[in-house]
Design a protein that fits this description.
The chain is of the alpha+beta class. Helices cover 25% and strands 38% of the residues. It has one domain. The protein has 2 helices and 9 strands. The protein is elongated.
């Protein structure tokens, strides 16, 4: 299957192996420089036991390994993290989700912009406090 990339670069095309797998391999072909770059797509099903949040539904993360670091990217919440191990990168990403929760979900709507309220509602679709 070939899909236009969801990234902002129009010269990239994604090749997706099997979107039903929990872990999916994607290849990105840059039309200017035709070298395949492998991405692993991981469906996060739960958070660390120490997290103050519980994941209500799976969350798609792109995982890359570059310059000795694992890079996790979540397009839905526009977040990324990195670490020497996948666990280290996941821990950093979970902290970012907790910060978003504290700053948006726990805040009164009257103090939030329209975009912030949309983010708040989206966070509530994916997370709940333990």
């Amino acid at each position: 299957m070939v899909l236009e990339s969801s990234k902002s670069e129009p010269d990239l095309v994604e090749f997706i192996s099997d979107p039903s797998d929990p872990i999916d391999i994607r290849y990105i072909l840059d039309k200017e420089n035709p070298v395949l770059k492998e991405l692993t797509v991981f469906k996060l099903e739960s958070l660390n036991q120490n997290s103050s949040l519980k994941l209500l539904r799976s969350l798609e993360l792109e995982v890359e390994f570059e310059n000795g670091l694992y890079i996790l990217d979540n397009d839905l919440f526009n977040l990324f993290s990195f670490g020497k191990t996948v666990d280290e990168a996941l821990c950093s990403l979970e902290t970012q989700f907790e910060i978003l929760w504290e700053n948006y979900v726990l805040e009164d709507d009257e103090k939030l912009t329209v975009g912030a309220i949309e983010l708040k509602n989206q966070l509530k679709e994916y997370f709940i406090e333990k």
